[in-house]
């Protein structure tokens, strides 16, 4: 299963619960959604793809790498800003312009969903041009989080789900829904799968109450199945 790196902690916990309830083991490949989409299009083996945005799923679909009709919206998320421990508190995007905030880590806006979402937020807030000299563009959202944890950056724009599991940073604020972009995680079955029945079973579990409880613990929003 190829899944966006921001899903790592939630999916590993869900997989343990899935096995506890009698399901088969699931092997994961976590990376930036853009990396995973290219891998799948180029023939890398996978049964399920969960992207952190619709564009990467569409790229895989347009290349014929996704089983037709299998894609659906699984999760939502929100952006959050984290800072280094011991830093003065910040409460809004405008505070990122303070002189005490010298480096701001984000996912690369030219490549990864988290970076694209961060750029949309900063542009909407009128801060994109002002903050350009401070931005540290990294390979994925976990790299941005790690930059704050290891002291390479003073702040980072990440997902709320990443912020809550971090032990080396401080959650400064969650971007209000009306100020941030719409973040959707689509899931689908890979067209080349040799385990379609198992893939369908695990996707059904991901949409069920046991997985929903874990996703929501990690601050993901879930889409309820309507019969």
Question: Any chance you could write out the topology, listing elements then pairs?
Answer:
Blueprint lengths: L1 E3 L3 H13 L8 E3 L1 H9 L6 E3 L3 H9 L9 E6 L1 E6 L19 E4 L5 H12 L3 H4 L3 E4 L2 H9 L5 E5 H6 L3 E6 L8 E7 L6 H11 L2 H9 L3 E2 L5
Parallel strand pairs: 1-2, 1-3, 6-7, 6-8
Antiparallel strand pairs: 3-10, 4-10, 4-11, 5-8, 5-9
Helix pairs in contact: 1-9, 2-3
Polypeptide structure, described:
The chain has 227 residues and is α/β, with parallel strands linked by helices. The chain has 2 domains: 115 residues, Periplasmic binding protein-like II (D-Maltodextrin-Binding Protein, domain 2); 96 residues, D-Maltodextrin-Binding Protein, domain 2 (3-Layer(aba) Sandwich), CATH 3.40.190.10. It is built from 9 helices and 11 strands. It has a 6-stranded mixed β-sheet, with helices on both faces. It has a 5-stranded mixed β-sheet with strand order 7-6-8-5-9, sandwiched between helices. Helix 1 runs antiparallel to helix 9 and helix 2 runs parallel beside helix 3. It is globular. 46% of the residues are buried.
Second rung of CATH, namely the architecture of the largest domain: 3-Layer(aba) Sandwich
Mean pLDDT: 96
List low-pLDDT spans: none
Number of helices: 9
In terms of DSSP E residues, the strand content is 15-25%
Q: Which series of helices and strands comes N to C?
A: EHEHEHEEEHHEHEHEEHHE
The CATH class of the largest domain, by name, is Alpha Beta
Structural class: alpha/beta
Largest sheet: 6 strands, mixed
Helix content: 25-40%
The number of domains: 2
> End-to-end distance, in Å?
26 Å
**What's the CATH H-level superfamily name of the largest domain?**
Periplasmic binding protein-like II
Radius of gyration: 18 Å
Number of strands: 11
State the CATH topology of the largest domain.
D-Maltodextrin-Binding Protein, domain 2
**Which geometry do the CA atoms define?**
globular
Spatial strand sequence of the major β-sheet: 2-1-3-10-4-11
């Amino acid at each position: 299963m190829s899944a966006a790196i921001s899903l790592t902690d939630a999916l590993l916990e869900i997989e343990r619960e899935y096995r506890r309830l009698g399901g088969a083991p699931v092997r994961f490949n976590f990376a930036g959604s853009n990396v995973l989409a290219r891998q799948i299009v180029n023939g890398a083996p996978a049964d399920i793809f969960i992207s952190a945005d619709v564009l990467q799923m569409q790229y895989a679909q347009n290349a014929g790498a996704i089983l037709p009709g299998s894609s659906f919206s699984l999760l939502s998320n929100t952006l959050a800003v984290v800072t280094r421990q011991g830093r003065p508190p910040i409460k809004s995007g405008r505070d990122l312009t303070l002189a005490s905030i010298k480096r701001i880590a984000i996912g690369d806006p030219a490549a990864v969903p988290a970076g694209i979402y961060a750029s949309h937020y900063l542009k909407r807030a009128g801060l994109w041009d002002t903050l350009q000299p401070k931005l540290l563009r990294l390979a994925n959202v976990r790299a941005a989080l790690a930059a704050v944890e290891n002291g390479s950056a003073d702040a980072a724009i990440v997902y709320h789900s990443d912020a809550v599991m971090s032990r080396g940073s401080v959650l400064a604020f969650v971007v209000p829904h009306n100020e941030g972009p719409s973040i959707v995680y689509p899931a689908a079955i890979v067209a080349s799968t040799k385990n379609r029945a198992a893939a369908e079973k695990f996707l059904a579990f991901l949409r069920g109450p046991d997985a929903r409880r874990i996703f929501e613990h990690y601050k993901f929003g879930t889409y309820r199945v309507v019969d």
